[in-house]
Amino acid sequence: MKTLARSLFILVAGITLGCARDPIARQKEYFESGTRYFQQEKYREAALQYQNALQADPRFAEGHYQLAQCYIKLEIWGGAYAELSRAVELQPNYAKARLDLGNLLLSGQQFKRAQEQAETVLKQDANNVDAHVLLARAYASLGDSKAALQEMEKVLKLAPDRPETYLTLAQIQARAQQFQAAEENFKKAVQLDPKSIPTLVTLANFYEQQKRWSDAEKLIRQAISLEPKNRQVRIQLAELYLAQNQKAQAEQVVVEAKKALSGDPVGYRVLGDFYFNTGDMEKAFAEYESLFREHPDDLRVKKNYAQLLILRNRLDEAAKLNDEILKANPKDTDSLIFRGQILNRRGQPSEAIRALESALKSEPDNAQAHFHLGNALGLTGNTGQAIKEWREAIRLRPQMTEAFRALADAAQRSGDVASLNESAEALIKANPSSPDGYVLRGTAELVKNDVGRAEMDLKKAIDLAPQNPLGYSRLAALRVNQKRYGEAEKLYEQALDRDSNFVEALRGLASVYGKQNQPAKALARVQAQIAAAPNNSRYYLLLGVLEASGKNFDGAQAALEKAVALDKTNSDAFLMLGQLQAARGSVAKAIQMNEQFVQANPRDVRGYLLLGMLEESRQNWQRAQEMYQKALQAAPGHPLAANNLAYLMLEHGGNVDVALSYAQMAISGTPDSTSFADTLAWAYFHKGTYGLAVDLLEETLKKAPQNPTYHYHLGLAYQKANNRARAKEHLERALQINPKYPQAAEIRKALSELAGG
């Protein structure tokens, strides 16, 4: 019996193991598991199981389709697009996948390609209602309202009793500004299905767009009475109040929603999320702090609380909480992104880059990971690569306003008005009720000196968000340009009333006093604001700048040291502290400080550049070259590093061909720089191509006619080109501009040779 039982056990085990190894069985098991997770709204877990099913059978079209559905729920649009495309490739007649792909393309504003998907389905099935609807929406998006409405007539014949038909028709009519007809069809959809929440909400949205607030509210409250546990409808009611600037009423709606949905994890988080989304970080933090005590095992609460700790700069607490999550799951994408944010704030962007790249290995299409990776790269001085990451974040999530803001900030810093305006327009399109896009467009218009349009946009920003300090601050900057300093001062004060930690406003206010030659008043105002907001590192940086400008180097040093103590990530304060040491004659101490900086920030190009310049100041040419080379390793192609390295090589016996390549690299990155043009001309001179050197230096002197170095170099180039008169003219001009020019002896020697020759 024992032998028989053992034999049966072995037989059963063999069958079980055989099934486990059967790809079809594995595919089925993983797919069913993924579907169970999907039904439970555990989309990440579902995605993992669908991926396992596809490993067993990569040509499983339904698996690719379901994985795409997970990605849509997770807003991983690139992944959804890839999986739907693969499903259609494997099964060309897969109408459901084609229609989802078409709707995804429509959302991504690829209207012609969405149209193509609809037309392909209609070739297979001329009566496919959803395909006709997609085609109508594509036509409408392309601006062809007539074709869109004709297509909807076909839909009405095929599905005259379907509420969705009238909804889509109404939306197209509203887009074509046929508002009366649109309202009639919205109401027809409601009549056909009076208990449909999406239908009621869509009509409410229509009324809201027309500012028919009471009509919209009536419909949303009707939807709430039908489904009291529907959190989205309650949130919509709160948003309706926010649209009318009735924040207190909106808050009350969400408080009631939390009570009504207390048994639902998303429900009890709704109030904290409301505070976060409306920018009330104090209340958001207090709410999530309480939620974390009540629900310590709720992973979403834990993650949201960690994010808020990061935003409050309580990095040690955030890191501890985040490490707990990563210990349980080292590949948790959210937590790897949090780690990247923490490291960025700690001034360790190199380590942040590694964490964020790990997150992207797990989820290549995670927009947040790309965005924060862009931030880390920006902190290292690698602006070009940072911009690529921010653009990728926007590609994956077209309404990601923080990525648009990052691009706009980069454009503003570089003076790229076209890119700034492009980002502003995209922000306005993505979120027309947000002040950000109008502020940025106003800033771009101000740069273009279009004062009228700038003022309109900035006032629009203030109207949209009267509690947001940014609109007041940028309008103040416009008043400064108009020399209306009194008005500018009031606007900056209004910005600071709304946010006592708003650095831009305090910096602008100090600038107003500076322009009126009132440095003492600027200093006193900054000190007063520090008393109101004593933990703002950036305020101490500003104080250090003002103290240094007034030659109070002891005060400047104390302020900068306080800035660094408050925020170890305040690299501007750290670097300025090093520069201050150098200005006070402590070059060795400045070098020591900058070496500490580059050790902590090995991918931040600024530390290497400053070290190179400091080493140059004490004529340590070899060490300076090494620093510029490290700068280029940290940020390949960096113009200033390439220029300075090229010049040192030319001046101190380096390889001329290599120096020439660096000089060309520098000028390609910054073509309008006269300094870089001079370095390139100097490389041509050392290469023996004197004609190129002369031509380039003549052009350079048109932009900077009082620069003695350019005259000196041009004089030597003319001398080598045997144009003695022009050589003498420029060499003498260099001495006229600066009789104590460092190379005065070399100039006199060259003039002597010209006279004797």
Walk me through this protein's architecture.
It is a single chain. The longest helix has 20 residues, at 2-21. The protein is mainly alpha-helical and 757 residues long. The chain is 80% helix and 0% strand.
Shape verdict:
globular
Q: Spans with pLDDT under 50 lasting ≥5 residues? A: 1-20
User: Kindly, what is the distance between the CA atoms of the first and last residues, rounded to a whole number of angstroms?
Assistant: 120 Å
What is the gyration radius calculated from CA atoms? 33 Å
Number of DSSP strands? 0
Q: Biggest β-sheet, characterized?
A: none
Helical percent range?
A: over 70%
> Helical segment tally?
44
Structural category is mainly alpha
Mean pLDDT: 87
Strand content: under 5%
The multimeric state of the shown protein is: single chain
Topology at a glance:
Elements: H1 2-21, H2 23-39, H3 43-56, H4 61-73, H5 77-90, H6 95-107, H7 111-124, H8 129-141, H9 145-158, H10 163-175, H11 179-192, H12 197-209, H13 213-226, H14 231-243, H15 247-260, H16 265-277, H17 281-294, H18 299-311, H19 315-328, H20 333-345, H21 349-362, H22 367-379, H23 383-396, H24 401-414, H25 417-430, H26 436-447, H27 451-464, H28 469-481, H29 485-498, H30 503-515, H31 519-532, H32 537-549, H33 553-566, H34 571-583, H35 587-600, H36 605-617, H37 621-634, H38 639-651, H39 656-669, H40 674-687, H41 690-703, H42 708-720, H43 724-737, H44 744-756
Helix pairs in contact: 2-3, 3-4, 4-5, 5-6, 6-7, 6-8, 7-8, 8-9, 8-10, 9-10, 10-11, 10-12, 11-12, 12-13, 13-14, 14-15, 15-16, 16-17, 17-18, 18-19, 18-20, 19-20, 20-21, 20-22, 21-22, 22-23, 23-24, 24-25, 24-26, 25-26, 26-27, 26-28, 27-28, 28-29, 28-30, 29-30, 30-31, 31-32, 32-33, 33-34, ...
